[in-house]
Amino acid sequence: MSLVNTPKPPYYAVIFTSVQTDFDREGYGKAAQKMIELAEKEEGFLGIDTAREEIGITVSYWKNLDSILKWKNNIEHTAVRKKGKSSWYKAYTTRICLVEKEYSWKLNQ
Amino acid sequence: MSLVNTPKPPYYAVIFTSVQTDFDREGYGKAAQKMIELAEKEEGFLGIDTAREEIGITVSYWKNLDSILKWKNNIEHTAVRKKGKSSWYKAYTTRICLVEKEYSWKLNQ
Fold it and tell me: Fewest C-beta in 10 Å: which of A74, B50, B68, B76?
């Protein structure tokens, strides 16, 4: 398991935090995986970090606001967001962020 | 479990992603909890979201860059970061981000 390697800033991050319902976890997992695969095909997609414990946090990285908007308007992504509201989420927050600085560190480097 | 309520943007987010070693998980957990308690006392601290699965993602929210810099220079926080490099982390990335837009949704609201 490794972290995303993003280019030198500036670039954009979309921070998506969520609380799940208890309903249809399997369907949710499949849809989440499918969305990652679709996002990876988008122009301007730079990578994604995701973890879920009591809450879920998914951070996707993008070249610019235009690439984020295109992903938002992707037809399959739009359909899945509706399903998210009707079935999978109790609450969520999306934050659109300009990444100004980045510092990385690795053991034995 | 609920998500952080942040003020209307703009404000700042610090996205900290990490991969842990297998060493001293208990010490890590205690230090992580202590750091959240300390950060909450800092002026300009707006909240924190955290989750760990294969990787850890912690997003803290701050009023401005000055409040982030003060927290970075906190003596206990600085000591814990050294311990993180020597014991707890295989790799980490810190991203300093300007939150430009935020959208929240809750069930039954």
Answer: B76
